[in-house]
Amino acid sequence: MIRYTELKSTNRRKLLEILPLRKPFTVLIEPSSLCNFRCVQCFQGLKAESYFTRNRSNMPLRRFRKIIRQLQAWEGPKLKVLKLSLYGEPLLNPDFCEMLRIAREADIAERIETTTNASLLTRAIAEKLVEYRLDYARVSIYAAGQRRHEKITGARTGIGAIHGNLLALQEIKKRHKSDKPFVSAKMLDTYGPENDRFLKLYRDAADELYIDKPHSWIKTGGADFMKNYYQEGLGAAVKDFNRHSTKRIACPMPFTTMAVRSNGAVSPCCVDFIGGTNLGNVDKLSLREIWYSDRWLEFQKMQLQDRKQENPSCARCDVYLSDHYTRDNIDGFPVARLRAKR
Asked: Is the per-residue pLDDT at 164 higher than 80?
């Protein structure tokens, strides 16, 4: 299989040359917005009440089935990616494996993937991931030592247990002679020896290991997510972030992506935990209707016209500036051509 880190570069066309899309490339569905970790660099660790804390939930299976039916009814090519994760730990939803089965049988995407911390990856779940042929499991690791792991995640789950869960998945894949799911484990760059310890510890438990780049979620209150994580190493992280920062105007995500929260709200963004970019709800409109709606069109125009300050989430976001997380530059695309997708 293609390594996860190479997917963004494989058979890639310039987005600027193919806009507007009649259908998104990527749809994210959130099985759960709950999480068993409270990481210091993540909004899940915030204690203040917010849109996110008020809407933490598992997605009901009936809503998931409805979303899949909407995607089946949407004419056109398959999605490039169906991602069964968003803001929480997906394996907290007891229906996750059934969701994967339904999505696989629907045959609506070129690949299906998820992101997990793997702490809840039991053998029973691992068997289902192999049976239902999850394409990619992206695993978020937070430390290579137990003390640092507990400090970062606020959880007492042993890193040995996480490592063991991934080993069991590899054993099950081997027994079934399956190359799926491809396990890509990553850790945020620590700019120190912790990187090497991570690479050494997990080399037998994953198909690919990589060091991820730092970023900050949408800024809210007095939270400084990067500072919380790096502390004494903050200078190196900020320097690295600035080295990968561009001067783009438009975020390309609203032109390629739909994210469905566990409560049914639909956004063109996968980092907006505060809900400022919610543009519809699958309980009231289909994904196709939301994609072609005036609200979605106006949101795209806002990006191209550099009016992000009008949106409470976009005004406090800089993730789209990173050339690590955002490959496409669509600045200069004519606003008048947006309605051509209709």
From this structure: yes
Sequential DSSP letters for 253-280: GGGTEEEE-TTSEEES-SS-TT-TT--E
User: Which one, of 190, 213, 224, lies nearest residue 319 by Cα?
Assistant: 213
Strand partners, 114: 137
How confident is the model over 196-227, as pLDDT tens digits?
Answer: 999 999 999 999 999 998 877 888 877 888 88
Written as six digits, the tokens of 139 are 């695993």
Residue 187: strand pairing partners: 141, 211
What is the separation of C-alpha 195 from the centre of its chain, rounded to a whole number of angstroms? 22
Q: Report whether the peptide linkage leading into residue 20 is cis, meaning its omega lies within 30 degrees of zero.
A: yes
Task: Check: CB of residue 23 under 8 Å from CB of residue 291.
Answer: yes
The total of other beta-carbon atoms located within 10 Å of residue 119's CB is 17
Residue 162's identity, in one-letter code, is I
User: What is the rounded CA–CA span in Å between residue 310 and residue 298?
Assistant: 11
Cα torsion through 233, 149, 224, 26, rounded to 10: 110
What pTM was estimated for this model as a whole?
A: 0.95
Structure tokens belonging to residue 172: 């099950």
Single out the residue of 94, 37, 28, 83 nearest to residue 60, CA to CA. 94
At 230, which helix (H) or strand (E)?
helix 225-230
> What Cα–Cα distance (Å) separates residue 147 from each residue in 156, 159, 196?
9, 10, 17
